[in-house]
């Protein structure tokens, strides 16, 4: 796979405030890259630089091999951008809106009618073709904006929080649409401050906090990364305190604490090690004479991962 | 330019807006307002040049009579045109001072709505966006611009046939070849002043709209953009006035311009000053377009 989006040491300063502190980001062609971070982390600034709307203070960014600073026109041809806060020309009809942007992308007049029809079909808005944009729901406007971003058949879609402010149904619709676009071979860079919102559709994740890329890679790689810090739940019939002392003395255990739920007390263990080390721990506990009747690992979803990473556990 | 997406967008919007109630009465009013100045202008032109031809082909002894007759005819028609002259002055002031507000909100409003970023990521270059927005502003001013255009023939007539400078007077005065040449220079000077005066409102509109656009790129709210634009224009107008008043005062001091006498040097001097002011405004407008595009590019 070749990298279609690349940034090297991307820095953006607003006066004395540094919004981006040297972002090195790589997005492979055909990937759905989830760019996640809390509000104010620098997601929108990064995306605006990639969309040629902002100039970086330092560093470089390239899309499809073109510099976002020096080859803006080529970059604009390669990307479809949807900002987090976007407006629509409410006094235009739906088809006029798409036709207008198609014209802005220099698409010939005779092609535009067919293109508009196809785009409206893709985002399931054909039935609202003659309506004014103002009459559409927010979810529909979002889909229309996505159709607009596709007017010139870009290689890369840069979507800044496309599901923000949408009701659950509209979120699902947008998610399905992104899946469809992924199948069509588009590279999608999608930002969100809610990881669970995009984890289902992403092939890659990048987590940004305070202007720094905390981690990035495939979903599997990031999950493996977090597995270094595993949370175990161990239930014993007796000798709970002995087991706590025994575990606390081990170098691969960072913390042990009793946790009571439904009248039962378990030990919650923060453990470092791979699956083999985990099996070894259980064997050693059994060998030490502890009557273990439950030995399980807390499942770690990406939301937990996000919480850990952005608290600096990994970084 | 008419095929520019932004121009087509504004044309579509303007077409949808209800500007004037439809019906026979409206058609009569619009048709009458449009036709009257043209008819008056044509009548005056016909009278003037008819008389000039008569002067050339007839005995010069009859020149005075023909000239007098002409002046009676023209002044009669001109009094009719007076009403339209006043209307034109009103329209001119209106368009020239409403234009900056329309321009000032154009880009700032897009920023407020959140549509501007989307527009900037299309293949339209910054300069193309600025020119498209500028043309879009003119589209919204179309009633005023149309009235100005329709009433312009009257001004053309005024410029050509004004009593002091009309070609008829020039011929009627006769005299030696030197005197005719002198009068021709005078007439040319007045003509230049008149042409500068005719172009001036258009230069004003260009300068005011481009100032509005420039400020519009700097402001995030349309309200602020309008306020800053008018502030900037008042300062700009003040500076222009001071500059040209100083030039005129300097030329009067050194004797190039004269307040009472009608020397060729004085008239030509005044003509150059009038033309310089128009050229300066047009150049200013062009610079502002380039500066606005550059500002967008550097954002």
Q: Summed up, what is this model?
A:
Chain A is built from eleven helices and 14 strands. By secondary structure, chain A is an alpha/beta fold.
Molecular structure report:
The complex is a heterodimer of chains A (315) and B (299). Chain A is built from eleven helices and 14 strands. Chain A has 315 residues and is α/β, with parallel strands linked by helices. Chain A has two domains: 3-218, 3-Layer(aba) Sandwich (Rossmann fold), CATH 3.40.50.300; 228-310, ACT domain (Alpha-Beta Plaits, 2-Layer Sandwich). In chain A, strand 7 (156-160), helix 6 and strand 8 form a beta-alpha-beta unit. With 299 residues, chain B is mostly helical. In chain B, helix 2 runs parallel beside helix 6 (142-161) and helix 6 packs antiparallel against helix 8. The model of chain B has no long low-confidence stretch (mean pLDDT 82). The interface between A and B is medium-sized, with 30 and 22 residues.
What key phrases describe this protein's structure?
heterodimer; A: 315 residues; Rossmann fold; B: 299 residues; 85% helix
